[in-house]
Amino acid sequence: MQQTAVFVIVAAAGLYAAWKLMPRALRARLAQVIVGFARRRGRLSDDAAAVLAQRLTAGGCGSCDSCGTCAKAPGVAPDASVLRFVPDESQPERRTRQ
After folding, report:
1. Where do the H-state alpha helices sit in 1-98?
2. Residue 75: helix, strand or coil by DSSP?
3. How far is residue 36's CA from residue 53's CA, in Å, rounded to a whole number?
4. Alpha-carbon distance 29 to 57, whole Å?
5. Is 39 part of a structural domain of the chain?
6. Looking at the domain assignment, is residue 27 inside a domain?
7. Angle at 72 (CA atoms; ends 68, 76), nearest 5 degrees
8. Residue 47 sits in which domain range?
9. pLDDT at 70 over 60
10. What is the model's pLDDT at position 5?
11. Distance, CA of 48 to CA of 56 (rounded, Å)
12. What is the DSSP letter of 22?
């Protein structure tokens, strides 16, 4: 019983990671296949299918070179929430050993 539970958990984690890391175009195509299958079986209405397809393809892209939508436009100011290290130049340099 424990082996079955472990198999299910590891398989689900692997599928989730593969889904999140695949290119956006492939994820959108697979989402349309999944939604189309559910609609043909009578499990989803047209409105629910559109919402599900939108949710399946949104966010969590694998990398910026997969679709290009993550890249910021040139000339855009950096995010204010990013912390940057700025050395304090008012303190003299410390030498521990010579």
Report:
1. 2-21, 24-40, 46-57, 64-67
2. coil
3. 9
4. 9
5. yes
6. yes
7. 160
8. 2-62
9. no
10. 96
11. 12
12. S
